[in-house]
Amino acid sequence: MPPRPKNNPRQIRSKTCGCAKCLEKYPTPERKRRRDCIGPWQARYRDPSGKQKAKNYPTRRDAEAFLDDVRSKVRSGTYLDPKRGEITLAQWWGLWWPAQDGKGRITTRNRKESAWRAHIEPKWATWKLRDIGYIDVQTWITSEVKGHHTQKKVLELLRAMMRDAVRDQRITVNPCLEVEVSPAPKRHPDELRPPTREQCALIREHLPSYYRPLVVFLEETGMRWGEVTGLRWCHVDLDAQHVKVKEVLSDDEGKLFRQPAPKTAAGFRTVPLTPEAVAAVETMVARWRPARTQSAIDSGMHEEELVFRGPQGGLLTRHNFRRSWIPAIQDAGVARKVVGENGREQWWPRVHDLRHTFATRLKDAGVPEKDVQAVMGHDRGSKVTWLYQHAGEDVAAEVLTALTTGRTLRAVS
């Protein structure tokens, strides 16, 4: 190893210093002469790429300490160029987001772009990466971002951006790593309980007759909206009384498109059909005579293959269906307004709550949790329990009976 240069750090000549060497380089007679130089000390070093860099310090001790630290980091491979962390978060987004192309579903990418535009960009766009600290992010999340779910999604995006900034050797630590979101709001079981079958029957009575088979099918299968509206006749087997979930219709900022079904592999599944569900399919098949062909997902919509369609034979959209759903739940006398975690009011029950009704039926019928998991398309069985089992009057009545009569409570899985 070659010896270290004796002139590193070295003192830089100054126009304000009156020592002999500074006066020699910058001759200004009116300056007061002095014996010791007060010029800054320059520490010179090479980064891992071999490029020479320099940094000035007021004292030699500070410059030598900096050089010792840099040399250790270069040898251990942990050196970071300070200038790489001086770009703003908006500049980093311009580099980072194109690198995410092709990662995740289109709907997920749209959600992330929305989180950037609505929440992260207005607050952090002009901040330099190295200046963003833990307490800054934690204060912002808890005081400026409203709603538990929104906080989770926004923090998830910012955390990923800063994680990759660490990987790209722009900053040393991720300031979002230990940031916590506000706890989810607690709700009474009555607010979580899905509609009963009696309530679902009332809603159907007040729906236009065309939509009744659709609602029956949703209630009898527990399938998601996009899975039902994207169901093709080639994936239905009425003789075996089941359907295969292989694709869905998704919404990209108002434009529907086809895509493979699952968020996870559990989304690909076979769903049994009750007699009521079979009758609903037969009603729609008799109306539209769908084709048995199986077109490729990337070949277009091919509405002629769909089982459930809009009243005019086109794609069935959530927005148009809500025009009939909201009046129906109001006329049935079951509608109520609930406040979501983001503070917005919404009508209960939602169409998605029919899925919860179906799952509750399976649990009440004693279907094992792993089988409920398979039919519902969940990747973990425990999710079924904490999503769909809402203790209410029935459980309270059982406990009261046990306390007053001594009857043993039934065991549950």
TrEMBL record:
Gene3D superfamilies: 1.10.150.130, Intergrase catalytic core. Residues 29-57 are annotated as: Disordered. PROSITE patterns: TYR_RECOMBINASE (PS51898). It comes from Streptomyces macrosporus. SUPFAM superfamilies: DNA breaking-rejoining enzymes. It comes from the Bacteria. This is Site-specific integrase. It holds the Pfam family Phage_integrase. InterPro entries: DNA_brk_join_enz, Integrase-like_cat_sf, Integrase_catalytic, Integrase_recombinase_N, Integrase_SAM-like_N, Tyrosine_recombinase_XerCD. Residues 190-401 form the Tyr recombinase domain. Coiled coil: none annotated. Belongs to the 'phage' integrase family. Keywords: DNA integration, DNA recombination, DNA-binding.
